[in-house]
Amino acid sequence: xxxxxxxxxxxxxxxxxxxxxxxxxxxxxxxxxxxxxxxxxxxxxxxxxxxxxxxxxxxxxxxxxxxxxxxxxxxxxxxxxxxxxxxxxxxxxxxxxxxxxxxxxxxxxxxxxxxxxxxxxxxxxxxxxxxxxxxxxxxxxxxxxxxxxxxxxxxxxxxxxxxxxxxxxxxxxxxxxxxxxxxxxxxxxxxxxxxxxxxxxxxxxxxxxxxxxxxxxxxxxxxxxxxxxxxxxxxxxxxxxxxxxxxxxxxxxxxxxxxxxxxxxxxxxxxxxxxxxxxxxxxxxxxxxxxxxxxxxxxxxxxxxxxxxxxxxxxxxxxxxxxxxxxxxxxxxxxxxxxxxxxxxxxxxxxxxxxxxxxxxxxxxxxxxxxxxxxxxxxxxxxxxxxxxxxxxxxxxxxxxxxxxxxxxxxxxxxxxxxxxxxxxxxxxxxxxxxxxxxxxxxxxxxxxxxxxxxxxxxxxxxxxxxxxxxxxxxxxxxxxxxxxxxxxxxxxxxxxxxxxxx
Length: 503
Fold this sequence. Notes:
Elements: H1 5-13, H2 27-36, H3 39-43, H4 63-82, H5 88-94, H6 99-108, H7 117-131, H8 140-151, H9 165-170, H10 217-224, H11 238-261, H12 267-279, H13 281-286, H14 289-294, H15 301-313, H16 320-335, H17 347-365, E1 369-370, E2 381-382, H18 385-403, H19 406-431, H20 441-453, H21 461-475, H22 479-489
Antiparallel strand pairs: 1-2
């Protein structure tokens, strides 16, 4: 017979090497401290969020400041929900909500993010699958989970950070593997959950987003075991849903801050797009998709495509009135507000940005609710309808006016080429029998770790272990370290001894 303490013990320590010890202590705060103390957390200060910190000044967010802000928003959401009597019984039924858990998971959620932001993630995935023969490829969320469970060594007797089951489960935005867990796989659902759809250019490759590689599947199952029977296998825990929502909020608000600070977001272009759609929304809604495609450069057309995309992908919440209201609210706050005063680095300008961010953060956090019957494309914790649409419009602004810029594309193509060349150079180094004794110690250790994970009868076991080790090694670099290492491997660096820091 299970005692009342056993479900809590499984939630706290399932799959963890730590002794059960005193359940009155707070192991989740210990998890948070272990994450913050990890060198992987410190390295995030040199990893791109959207705009590379190199050459962009000191004011843009990097993965470290982004993670800190996600943790701040996630904790605020958790504290608000747990203090509201309306949600207490439902939260307990679904497996619980602890502010320390969501804060720790938020701090850890980007530990595996590679150099150069999402561009680096896409390039490493392509190289891992097509060049190195790894069916799982590369995925930033799965790499974060790999770090806390295996590749980050905390001490001689433990592998990974030895986090509690609850925190590990809360890190799983996408609680499935790329191809085969759970069965049936969520990519076969109609509609599939967010992230489960295969990339359009490679429909046989499995889900675009996933939470763990096949090598960490046992750990994923252990972390999720306390929630069995409470939530579907493919659904986020409540705490993962809070972290995911906080990530969306921080991304929508703080990236707009960055683009404003560096002068990329211009009032005129954003205003023209939003106001053209407002003036001619009836016309835009009436034309066919084909006609809309032929007028792609016309102001208002891009945001009309967003409206239609929301209806196609998220019919469970997409609403034309809410969308129109969101466009108006973003126009008032962003076009007539923030962008009306060009950023000049003054104290007044910084205060203006801070007030903008605080208003939006408060608005979103106060709109969070909990449901016991979420859409397949949602979690148990979600934004109100009005605020959900506002997040989509804010994200549209930086996609349209920053990510689509040719000058950014030029920069990113260079970064993609750099990563490809670096992976190829490391592969050749690993294959050179005369250089085995001079391999970077970390790379050598990662090869041994990957070999130990693979079954002895797997075809080309050594080759796959080397491929995974290269991916792990490159993914742990900062932007600057990736550049410096390629310079050294290409013979362009003259700093012989100082180049050792990248090894």
